[in-house]
Description:
- The protein is α+β, with helices and mostly antiparallel strands.
- It has a single domain (3-266), classed as Aminohydrolase, N-terminal nucleophile (Ntn) domain (Glutamine Phosphoribosylpyrophosphate, subunit 1, domain 1), CATH 3.60.20.10.
- 18% of the residues lie in helices and 37% in strands.
- The protein has helices at residues 19-23, 58-65, 129-147, 155-170; strands at residues 3-13, 15-17, 34-41, 44-50, 70-78, 91-95, 98-106, 175-180, 185-188, 192-193, 199-200, 205-211, 216-217, 223-225, 230-236, 246-247, 252-257, 260-266.
- It has a seven-stranded antiparallel beta sheet with strand order 4-3-5-1-15-12-16. Strands 6-7-8-9-17-18 form a six-stranded antiparallel beta sheet.
- The two termini are 24 Å apart.
- 43% of the residues are buried.
- The model has no long low-confidence stretch (mean pLDDT 85).
Amino acid sequence: xxxxxxxxxxxxxxxxxxxxxxxxxxxxxxxxxxxxxxxxxxxxxxxxxxxxxxxxxxxxxxxxxxxxxxxxxxxxxxxxxxxxxxxxxxxxxxxxxxxxxxxxxxxxxxxxxxxxxxxxxxxxxxxxxxxxxxxxxxxxxxxxxxxxxxxxxxxxxxxxxxxxxxxxxxxxxxxxxxxxxxxxxxxxxxxxxxxxxxxxxxxxxxxxxxxxxxxxxxxxxxxxxxxxxxxxxxxxxxxxxxxxxxxxxxxxxxxxxxxxxxxxxxx
Length: 267
């Protein structure tokens, strides 16, 4: 099973990832088939991906020691059915002069044959149902962003489209996803494979922290933040520590920016 993690903070800071430790919190502790991390810097993104396990990667070791300062990062650890760089999350596209990033946990039955999911000008590079869904979302969002002529669309209008998109995905299979438009992080929770082998809620968990001057370390959770006094919100497939992570309900969407929760919806 794939593992999702995202962090939003008030100001950019160094975020260290140990993706192997992140993966160990899932229900399947076997080897992973790929990993990816997207670090935002305003409208742009530093994206690192490899189709091979993080345990074998010199690149992930470098990132763990020399992370890019960022106020928003999205990571994905993949249990692949088709291993290749093109199929490795997170996926990234440009829309309205900013980078949009998407990562997904779950599976969509025959989404490529569903007439509701047309692509417009966006097309997948790889063969995953996740990337195809992302292309469909961008098609839905393109008219909204382009009509704003360089201004930010309202959060309400963006949430309307993302909520409808998520509801359609849930009819096809588990649809936990992280999506950002370089302004807001959107986290949608659904069902996922649990430790008992059943597909059920929760699919995502959330934790808010106010960090003082001490270094923020999620014990063995796999994430470290450099010392800084600021607000932080984290989203993960499973709780990474013994702290009070809150499970998200099936169909719940959380909008997050600058280390704060802006709005949540239950679709």
